[in-house]
Amino acid sequence: MASWRPRCSSAAPVMLRRSKLNWLARLGFGFLALMLALAAEWQRSEFVTRLDEGLRDQFLVQLADSRPENRLTVVDINEEALQLEGPWPWPRARLADLAEILIAVYGVRSVGFDIVLPEPADALGEARLLALATHAPLALAQIFDFTERDRAVLQGQATGGSAVVPGMANVPSVQAYGHIANHSGLSNARCVGNIGYRPDADGVLRHTPTHTRFGDRIYPSFAAALLACSDGLPAADGTRRPNQLTPPANGQGEWRVPYRFTPASYTVISAADVLRERAPRSLLAGRHVLLGSSALGLGDRVSTPLSPLSAGVMVHAASVSGLLDLAEGKLQAPWSGRVALVVWSTLSIALALVGIAGLSAWGSVALLLGLAMGWLVLAFAGVARQAEWSVTAPLWAYACLLVGAVPYEWWQTQRQSSRLMATFSHYVAQPVLDEIVRLEMSHSLKPTLREVTVLIADMEGYTRTTSSLSLDEAANLTKDFLGCLTRPVLAWRGTLDKYSGDGLVAFWGAPLACPDQADRAVSAALDVMKEVVGFNQGRALMGLPPVRVRIGIESGQALVGDLGTAFRSTYTAVGDCINFASRLEAAAKDFPSGLLIGPVSNSRLVQHQTESLGLVSLRGTETTIEVFTLKS
Predict the structure, then answer these.
(1) How far, in Å, CA of 77 to CA of 293, rounded?
(2) Largest Cα–Cα distance in the chain?
(3) Cα separation, 411 vs 405, whole angstroms
């Protein structure tokens, strides 16, 4: 039958449980951070969306090209034109003159009217406009209303759309509920596009519909209709191909307008200069032209990522530029990038958790800031590629770690530091403790193999001395004698291991490295003996017999650290050098000096001169070693 053994408890299971709890807490913070990042991407609130788009706008400002956009010119019905040519509305004949001059005199590639003509006017001018819209590269505009109202806005006749057939069921489009279109006399126009839009919740126009669905027909955007009116676009190899440009759509059927050029990049010419044929031909020939208005009360005003207040025609100009870039291969298809976002978030959160667990609070903050900057660089590249994913998603994860994981790890560090302080305050002098804190040696309690020098001292004949004393007298003698031993040890920055009744065990070399540890131990021993001399002088004045101290010193490797249990923490050293020092202390009773130094410590002394006392057999062993003491 198996014998029964008492079960022993140790610190290992408790430390293991603490370690598991710490990592469970870290995994919890990591999971929460990842969920925040994914939620910011897939379940965007209005607040998150506004921050996200605001940051994206700042990226666009930095990315915007300030070079001239030579493929497109804006003809502006501005205040000057209204003063010279008369107030709005202009006769249709004048609009026809404007289109004919641009096409026939200046040789533009196409003309787009960013104006709607819902009512007929002068018949001759209407006929000329219809002829131009039917046979020339002239694109007209119509506005679709994307707000569902009790009473739909239906003005003019929507045209230019394609019937929805089974093959077009999946064409991305935005549902419209009304329109303001040109009058029926212009219904035969060849190219008509939508200029209606839906600003974001913050009022900034960032997206336009790629197609608009109204009734059983689908209508193109104004920019696409304009380019469809030209005679084909140049391909990368210089050949020409039909204009079948369709802006890439997001999940809502909208295209994120690229805004690749700054507003100042576009050439803007007054309509009056065109009508009077005084505009430079070089600014119009071979270009696409958008006719719009910046005059107060006539043109619409919108807010864009590049400008808080811009004429609506500039949004269509940015859309035309984007489609031209797309056709010429300068603008790539939108970068989906969601996989990159998820991979980055997961790996960076894992890296942050590992880093936070091993760094100081400020180091953890620096790590999170570094990861945030790395993500912003990647997000910047994504914005340049028309990415639709959230540019702030991982930042929410880093904020979660900054608010939760960093304070938690700081609290754990403080707990460990408090435990370290509480433990070492019993063993080392305050200067040593201050040095441990300064060096942030939170690992100092971990058991490690160190090179140390051990000093063991006690009172010779303690039992005989205290046998005739009262309990209080014995206690006072013990405390006073231990004071004589302790003060020099701490003064020479030794580590107090333990008291053993009437003696103590101390060592040098841990927790702080000590190159001159043997000399320090011997210096402490000399001061101990001086303390005992002074102690005996006081006893002599009281008519009490003297006491004698015995000291053994030896160096060697020892396992040093917190070798306590879950019930009591103790910082101690275990090794052969401790045993040798103990036996040297016991053998010192046979020598008048009372101090014996082992051969290893003796070989390391630099500041003290010693002499050999010959070979000594150590008690309890068969070992014989040479011992030394200080020269008298």
Answers:
(1) 4
(2) 139
(3) 10
Contact in structure between 468 and 461 (CB atoms under 8 Å): no
Q: Is pLDDT at 32 greater than 90 in this prediction?
A: no
Q: Which of 135-139, 418-422, 570-574 has the weakest average pLDDT? A: 418-422
**Predicted pLDDT of residue 445:** 64
How many whole angstroms separate alpha carbon 558 and alpha carbon 159? 93
Domain 429-630 has CATH 3.40.50.2300: no
Cβ(33)–Cβ(394) below 8 Å: no
Q: Does residue 398 have a pLDDT over 50? A: yes
Q: Is the pLDDT of residue 193 over 90?
A: yes
- Residue 558: Cβ-neighbour burial (10 angstroms; 0-12, 13-18, 19+): buried
Neighbours of 155 (CB within 10 A): 17
CA dist 183 and 181 (Å) reads 6
Q: Which H/E stretch holds residue 601?
A: helix 599-603
Ordered DSSP codes for 408-458: HHHHHHHHHHHHHHHHHTTTS-HHHHHHHHHTT-TTTTS-EEEEEEEEEEE
User: Is residue 242 pLDDT above 50, yes or no?
Assistant: no
**Quick one: which of 168, 182, 72 has its CA closest to 118?**
182
Token readout for 306 is: 């590049």
176, two tokens: 């419209």
- pLDDT tens column, 371-390: 999 989 988 888 888 888 88
Q: How far is CA 626 from CA 91, 558, 585, 594, 631, in A?
A: 122, 21, 14, 16, 15
204 has a pLDDT exceeding 90: yes
What are the residue boundaries of the structural domains of the chain, listed by start?
11-43+336-421, 58-328, 429-630
d(CA 196, CA 145): 7
Residues in Cβ contact with 117 at an 8 Å cutoff, skipping those fewer than 6 apart: 92, 129, 140, 156, 182, 183, 186
Name the nearest CA neighbour of 176 among 197, 162, 193: 197
The string of pLDDT tens digits covering residues 100-116 is 999 999 999 999 999 99
341, HSE (Cβ side, Cα atoms, 13 Å): 29
474 half-sphere exposure, CB direction, 13 A CA radius: 12
Cβ-based neighbours of 269, under 8 Å, separated by 6 or more: 73, 74, 75, 76, 279, 283, 284
CA 486 to chain CA centroid, Å, is 51
Give the CA distances from residue 280 to residues 71, 105, 109, 353, in Å, rounded to whole numbers and listed in that order: 15, 11, 16, 63
What's the confidence (pLDDT) of residue 17?
43
Dist. CA 489–CA 558, nearest whole Å: 19
Long-range interactions of 55-61: CB distance < 8 A, separation 24+:
55/379, 55/391, 55/392, 56/305, 56/383, 56/391, 57/204, 57/305, 59/379, 59/380, 59/383, 59/384, 59/391, 60/259, 60/305, 60/306, 60/383, 61/305, 61/306
Compute and round to an integer the Cα radius of gyration of the chain: 45
213 DSSP β-pair partners: 175, 218
pLDDT (mean) for 519-546: 93
Please tell me whether residue 74 adopts helix, strand or coil conformation: strand
